[in-house]
Amino acid sequence: MEQSGSFVYLIKHLEMGLRPRFIEACAQGGMTYAQYTALTVLRHRPGITSSELARRSFVRAQSMAATVDPLLESGFVRREQDPAHARRMLLFLTPQGERKIDELSPSIDSLEELLLGDLDAEERKQFAGFLRRCRHAMDGADYRPPAP
Amino acid sequence: MEQSGSFVYLIKHLEMGLRPRFIEACAQGGMTYAQYTALTVLRHRPGITSSELARRSFVRAQSMAATVDPLLESGFVRREQDPAHARRMLLFLTPQGERKIDELSPSIDSLEELLLGDLDAEERKQFAGFLRRCRHAMDGADYRPPAP
């Protein structure tokens, strides 16, 4: 049996250790953390809105413009009118955006290798599965802490 | 094969989802996130210094006093002179501090249950093992991102 809070603590610890290294890896490619994350989210989910992108990039909806505008200007992202809702704009990665992600991949891969170096291929697969199942469980939950 | 950055992203996603819920669970017990973390760290590592506690509680050394002073005043933590270095103070959990952690355990357990709800006992054990091995790999690494 794990101690109370062990998982919360371990996840926090990993996130805190990864953050500065991830920021540095992104900066090497001239990107902020939020910009790189936005590009990778758009690769997986082309045609989402800015507010959906904000949520998935861990950025406030109000500050998403500051993240996306430079990406639009640099030609990494393009905007398109939603055919179903004329006033809604959808975002897509451009071929230049794809190349930017590929350019950064070696840095991100080496950061992940640092994290996962002790796990073999089968264990990495299991670990990714556990992380995803936790994400789904958490995202689907309408959590209220119990009254003390 | 996982996409570049999948693990970084998944860990970030879990941390971002857990954070507000963890803050809320701590607040129910009259604690800040940092204070509760400090108590749990001291339970595992009695007799560490304030700067070591800061590092392990994800708080800057300079702002640790703001976290620890209320814990000292409330009697959850006590200070003791290091027998080996007269000018160094070591921190310990008090019995009241132990009780405070126990009082908060149901809230934290239910938060972890939300995260782990889809994993059985054996899978949780494996998952904790993977998280710990990643932490050790990361903490032991002298990482430099490769030149782009």
Strand percentage of chain A: 5-15%
CATH superfamily of chain A: Winged helix-like DNA-binding domain superfamily/Winged helix DNA-binding domain
Distance between the termini of chain A: 22 Å
Shape annotation of chain A: globular
Helix run count of chain A: 6
Helix content of chain A: 55-70%
CATH class category label of chain A: Mainly Alpha
Oligomer: homodimer
The average pLDDT value of chain A, as a whole number, equals: 90
How many structural domains are formed by the residues of chain A? 1
Q: Provide the CATH architecture of chain A.
A: Orthogonal Bundle
In angstroms, what is the radius of gyration of chain A?
18 Å
Name the helix and strand elements of chain A from N-terminus to C-terminus, one letter apiece. HHHHEEHH
Please identify the structural class of chain A as seen in this structure.
mainly alpha
The side-by-side strand order for the widest beta sheet of chain A comes to 1-2
Largest sheet of chain A: 2 strands, antiparallel
Structure description:
Two copies of one chain form a homodimer. Chain A is mainly α. The first copy, chain A, has one domain: Winged helix-like DNA-binding domain superfamily/Winged helix DNA-binding domain (Arc Repressor Mutant, subunit A), CATH 1.10.10. The first copy, chain A, contains six helices and two strands; from the N terminus they run ααααββαα. The first copy, chain A, has a two-stranded antiparallel ribbon. In chain A, α1 crosses α5. Chain A is globular and about 50 Å long. The first copy, chain A, starts with 5 loop residues before the first helix and ends in a 9-residue tail after the last helix. The model of chain A has no long low-confidence stretch (mean pLDDT 90). At the A-B interface, α1, α2, α5 and α6 of A face α1, α2, α5 and α6 of B.
